[in-house]
Amino acid sequence: MTTSRRKFLSTVSAVTAGGLAALSSRAPRFLLESAAFGAETKGEKILVVVQLSGGNDGLNTVVPYSEEKYRNSRPSLAVDGNGGNIVKIENDIGLHPSLRACEKLLENKQLSILQGIGYPNPNRSHFESMDVWHTAHNKPSARESGWLGRCVDAHKDTLGKAIESVRIAPCWTLMIAFPQANQPTMSHLGPQWNAARSNHHRVAWLARESSKPCRDPIERWTLQASPTWSQEHIRDDAQRVEAKLLRAFSEITGILATPSYAQARCWPEAQTLVPAGKSHFWDAKSQIGLAGDWCTGHRVEDGFLSGLALALDVM
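The structure corresponding to this sequence follows.
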């Protein structure tokens, strides 16, 4: 079962009268039928939260079509609000034409759009926003655990004990770009290869992002430090780590040019070292379940199979 963000959003916008997302072929039929049966027999409302981690063009999803600044800033991308195709919410904002299926939901008051959700004094960092979202804390000093983790802590006699043996390593990641390499006489910098596992004491893996299909041609690289090195330097300042990983990058690739953009970021829990050894966890009494790649491994496939196993158990 494969899908894209665009296909998922277009199908999920069709919602049944009972309030269940009609995912059609995007979700297994037995999951949809089970959810419908549960709602009909128990009289319960089902809340489904879908978090789409990644980029989304918000201004062309909920479109401020009457704003002159919007149109001037996007001469080729702006959605025309006067052509009749836009799904108007109010006189000055509307949904992209591809979300036409949401129009009836708006009319029936089954759909609400919340704009401007964020935190006080934002610094416009995607990473900062995700940290706030995952931990429910504005202050970095208070972000020792996520809100889901705290929920598990509240049920430590059941779920907490089940996962206390899991060990997940941190990962320092460096993202760099070399716009100066984007010239007619220069296709790329450094080596001919585009990705490699490394035995360097700092770096475990690196890849040329600009070599991937449909990517911007600007020379860009991503480096991921080894679990051991990341753990040793987990409390280091990002600038210090950036300098060390840049030096390692030069040693591995031979690229000595200074990147125009560089940012180091640490993911405290990035790669499973010791999995739980069980596909999922389900506490029927508290109605709380846990699933993830860390249950059996560290890959996307492990996460999918874990979630599927939990869904089957819940039913």
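The first strand starts at residue 62 and ends at 63.
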